[in-house]
Amino acid sequence: SQTIHQWPATLVQPVGSPLSLECTVEGTSNPNLYWYRQAAGRGLQLLFYSVGIGQISSEVPQNLSASRPQDRQFILSSKKLLLSDSGFYLCAWEGNDNQPQHFGDGTRLSIL
Amino acid sequence: SQQGEEDPQALSIQEGENATMNCSYKTSINNLQWYRQNSGRGLVHLILIRSNEREKHSGRLRVTLDTSKKSSSLLITASRAADTASYFCAPQRIWGAGTKLIIKP
Lengths: 112, 105
Prior knowledge:
The complex is a heterodimer of chains A (112) and B (105). By secondary structure, chain A is mainly β. Helices cover 0% and strands 57% of the residues of chain A. Chain A is globular and about 40 Å long. Chain B is globular. The chains are: A mainly beta (112), B mainly beta (105).
Protein backbone atom coordinates (compact mmCIF):
# COMPACT_ATOMS: atom_id res chain seq x y z
CA SER A 1 0.00 0.00 0.00
CA GLN A 2 1.03 3.59 -0.53
CA THR A 3 2.21 5.84 2.28
CA ILE A 4 3.38 9.41 2.51
CA HIS A 5 5.85 10.70 5.06
CA GLN A 6 6.30 14.33 5.93
CA TRP A 7 8.69 15.74 8.50
CA PRO A 8 9.24 17.38 10.85
CA ALA A 9 5.82 17.60 12.48
CA THR A 10 6.59 20.95 14.10
CA LEU A 11 9.34 23.47 13.50
CA VAL A 12 10.22 26.79 15.10
CA GLN A 13 12.61 28.94 13.13
CA PRO A 14 13.93 32.51 13.47
CA VAL A 15 13.26 35.09 10.80
CA GLY A 16 15.95 35.01 8.14
CA SER A 17 16.90 31.38 8.69
CA PRO A 18 16.75 28.75 5.92
CA LEU A 19 14.08 26.07 5.61
CA SER A 20 13.94 22.55 4.27
CA LEU A 21 10.82 20.40 4.58
CA GLU A 22 10.88 16.94 3.12
CA CYS A 23 8.13 14.70 1.82
CA THR A 24 8.53 11.14 0.56
CA VAL A 25 6.04 8.72 -0.92
CA GLU A 26 6.24 4.93 -0.87
CA GLY A 27 4.42 2.30 -2.83
CA THR A 28 3.74 4.19 -6.04
CA SER A 29 5.66 5.40 -9.08
CA ASN A 30 5.61 8.73 -10.88
CA PRO A 31 3.05 10.38 -8.61
CA ASN A 32 1.92 13.96 -8.95
CA LEU A 33 3.22 15.76 -5.86
CA TYR A 34 1.91 18.89 -4.15
CA TRP A 35 2.92 21.38 -1.47
CA TYR A 36 0.13 23.36 0.20
CA ARG A 37 0.06 25.95 2.95
CA GLN A 38 -2.91 26.35 5.26
CA ALA A 39 -3.46 29.42 7.43
CA ALA A 40 -5.35 28.89 10.69
CA GLY A 41 -9.04 28.25 10.03
CA ARG A 42 -8.61 28.57 6.28
CA GLY A 43 -8.49 26.38 3.22
CA LEU A 44 -5.44 25.13 1.38
CA GLN A 45 -3.31 27.36 -0.78
CA LEU A 46 -1.47 25.47 -3.50
CA LEU A 47 2.21 26.45 -3.49
CA PHE A 48 3.91 24.01 -5.88
CA TYR A 49 3.11 20.89 -7.83
CA SER A 50 5.25 18.45 -9.75
CA VAL A 51 4.37 15.88 -12.41
CA GLY A 52 7.87 14.41 -12.62
CA ILE A 53 11.51 14.58 -11.53
CA GLY A 54 12.85 18.10 -11.90
CA GLN A 55 9.46 19.44 -13.07
CA ILE A 56 8.12 22.08 -10.69
CA SER A 57 5.22 24.45 -11.23
CA SER A 58 4.77 27.39 -8.91
CA GLU A 59 1.29 28.71 -8.22
CA VAL A 60 2.10 31.86 -6.28
CA PRO A 61 5.13 34.15 -6.19
CA GLN A 62 6.76 33.90 -2.82
CA ASN A 63 9.78 33.36 -0.69
CA LEU A 64 9.70 29.60 -1.14
CA SER A 65 11.00 27.10 -3.69
CA ALA A 66 10.48 23.41 -4.32
CA SER A 67 12.57 20.64 -5.78
CA ARG A 68 11.98 17.03 -6.80
CA PRO A 69 15.37 15.34 -6.90
CA GLN A 70 13.89 11.84 -6.99
CA ASP A 71 10.62 10.39 -8.23
CA ARG A 72 9.08 10.09 -4.78
CA GLN A 73 10.79 12.94 -2.95
CA PHE A 74 9.51 16.50 -2.81
CA ILE A 75 11.33 19.23 -0.89
CA LEU A 76 10.11 22.67 0.12
CA SER A 77 12.85 25.23 0.80
CA SER A 78 13.56 28.81 1.63
CA LYS A 79 16.83 30.69 1.84
CA LYS A 80 15.50 33.30 4.29
CA LEU A 81 12.24 32.81 6.16
CA LEU A 82 9.80 35.66 6.69
CA LEU A 83 7.24 36.04 9.47
CA SER A 84 4.53 35.55 6.84
CA ASP A 85 5.88 32.06 6.08
CA SER A 86 4.33 30.76 9.30
CA GLY A 87 1.61 28.21 8.73
CA PHE A 88 0.68 24.59 8.35
CA TYR A 89 2.43 22.96 5.38
CA LEU A 90 0.95 19.89 3.77
CA CYS A 91 2.41 17.56 1.18
CA ALA A 92 0.14 15.40 -0.97
CA TRP A 93 0.39 12.90 -3.80
CA GLU A 94 -2.01 11.57 -6.41
CA GLY A 95 -1.84 9.00 -9.19
CA ASN A 96 -3.31 11.26 -11.86
CA ASP A 97 -5.69 14.17 -12.29
CA ASN A 98 -8.83 12.15 -11.67
CA GLN A 99 -7.75 10.36 -8.54
CA PRO A 100 -7.91 11.42 -4.89
CA GLN A 101 -5.05 13.21 -3.24
CA HIS A 102 -3.39 11.60 -0.24
CA PHE A 103 -1.97 13.90 2.40
CA GLY A 104 0.86 13.76 4.88
CA ASP A 105 0.30 14.76 8.48
CA GLY A 106 1.67 18.26 7.90
CA THR A 107 4.36 20.46 9.38
CA ARG A 108 3.44 23.27 11.73
CA LEU A 109 5.97 26.03 11.02
CA SER A 110 6.31 28.96 13.41
CA ILE A 111 8.58 31.87 12.59
CA LEU A 112 9.84 33.96 15.49
CA SER B 1 -8.57 32.68 -6.95
CA GLN B 2 -10.78 30.55 -4.76
CA GLN B 3 -12.78 27.95 -6.65
CA GLY B 4 -14.68 26.01 -4.02
CA GLU B 5 -16.72 27.87 -1.44
CA GLU B 6 -18.30 25.88 1.36
CA ASP B 7 -21.46 26.86 3.14
CA PRO B 8 -22.05 27.17 6.04
CA GLN B 9 -18.69 28.15 7.47
CA ALA B 10 -19.59 26.43 10.72
CA LEU B 11 -22.28 23.94 11.71
CA SER B 12 -23.12 22.60 15.15
CA ILE B 13 -25.66 19.79 15.51
CA GLN B 14 -26.69 17.09 17.97
CA GLU B 15 -25.35 13.59 17.64
CA GLY B 16 -27.67 11.49 15.55
CA GLU B 17 -28.87 14.37 13.37
CA ASN B 18 -27.97 14.74 9.71
CA ALA B 19 -25.41 17.32 8.59
CA THR B 20 -25.52 18.97 5.18
CA MET B 21 -22.69 21.04 3.77
CA ASN B 22 -22.74 22.81 0.43
CA CYS B 23 -20.08 23.78 -2.04
CA SER B 24 -20.27 26.21 -4.95
CA TYR B 25 -17.69 26.73 -7.64
CA LYS B 26 -17.12 28.99 -10.59
CA THR B 27 -15.67 27.19 -13.58
CA SER B 28 -16.20 23.91 -15.43
CA ILE B 29 -14.83 20.84 -13.71
CA ASN B 30 -13.96 17.22 -14.50
CA ASN B 31 -14.45 16.12 -10.93
CA LEU B 32 -15.07 17.39 -7.43
CA GLN B 33 -13.67 15.90 -4.27
CA TRP B 34 -14.66 16.13 -0.61
CA TYR B 35 -12.14 15.82 2.21
CA ARG B 36 -12.19 15.82 5.99
CA GLN B 37 -9.55 17.33 8.25
CA ASN B 38 -9.27 16.70 11.94
CA SER B 39 -7.68 19.55 13.87
CA GLY B 40 -3.96 19.83 13.19
CA ARG B 41 -3.85 16.86 10.86
CA GLY B 42 -3.64 16.18 7.16
CA LEU B 43 -6.72 15.85 4.98
CA VAL B 44 -8.46 12.55 4.39
CA HIS B 45 -10.22 11.91 1.12
CA LEU B 46 -13.93 11.08 1.43
CA ILE B 47 -15.53 10.97 -2.02
CA LEU B 48 -14.65 11.88 -5.61
CA ILE B 49 -17.59 12.60 -7.90
CA ARG B 50 -17.08 13.04 -11.63
CA SER B 51 -18.80 15.65 -13.73
CA ASN B 52 -21.03 13.04 -15.40
CA GLU B 53 -22.27 11.72 -12.03
CA ARG B 54 -25.13 13.23 -10.06
CA GLU B 55 -24.94 11.34 -6.78
CA LYS B 56 -22.52 9.11 -4.95
CA HIS B 57 -22.70 7.23 -1.66
CA SER B 58 -20.11 5.92 0.75
CA GLY B 59 -21.40 4.53 4.02
CA ARG B 60 -23.16 7.39 5.86
CA LEU B 61 -21.96 9.92 3.29
CA ARG B 62 -23.92 11.10 0.28
CA VAL B 63 -22.55 13.57 -2.23
CA THR B 64 -24.55 15.25 -4.96
CA LEU B 65 -23.32 17.28 -7.89
CA ASP B 66 -25.30 19.74 -10.01
CA THR B 67 -23.06 20.98 -12.80
CA SER B 68 -25.77 23.30 -14.14
CA LYS B 69 -25.80 25.16 -10.83
CA LYS B 70 -22.08 24.60 -10.21
CA SER B 71 -22.80 23.22 -6.77
CA SER B 72 -22.29 20.11 -4.69
CA SER B 73 -23.50 18.95 -1.31
CA LEU B 74 -22.19 16.53 1.29
CA LEU B 75 -24.71 14.86 3.57
CA ILE B 76 -23.61 12.97 6.67
CA THR B 77 -26.44 10.91 8.09
CA ALA B 78 -26.81 9.82 11.72
CA SER B 79 -23.88 11.98 12.79
CA ARG B 80 -21.45 10.83 15.46
CA ALA B 81 -19.09 12.73 17.75
CA ALA B 82 -16.19 11.35 15.68
CA ASP B 83 -17.53 13.24 12.65
CA THR B 84 -16.43 16.51 14.29
CA ALA B 85 -13.92 17.97 11.82
CA SER B 86 -13.54 20.49 9.03
CA TYR B 87 -14.87 19.47 5.64
CA PHE B 88 -13.50 20.79 2.38
CA CYS B 89 -14.63 20.56 -1.21
CA ALA B 90 -12.05 20.72 -3.98
CA PRO B 91 -13.42 21.32 -7.47
CA GLN B 92 -10.46 20.59 -9.73
CA ARG B 93 -8.22 20.68 -6.66
CA ILE B 94 -8.84 24.32 -5.86
CA TRP B 95 -9.85 24.55 -2.23
CA GLY B 96 -12.41 26.49 -0.25
CA ALA B 97 -12.10 27.55 3.38
CA GLY B 98 -14.11 24.58 4.60
CA THR B 99 -17.06 23.95 6.88
CA LYS B 100 -16.25 23.38 10.53
CA LEU B 101 -18.65 20.70 11.78
CA ILE B 102 -19.20 20.15 15.50
CA ILE B 103 -21.25 17.20 16.68
CA LYS B 104 -22.54 17.67 20.21
CA PRO B 105 -23.02 14.49 22.27
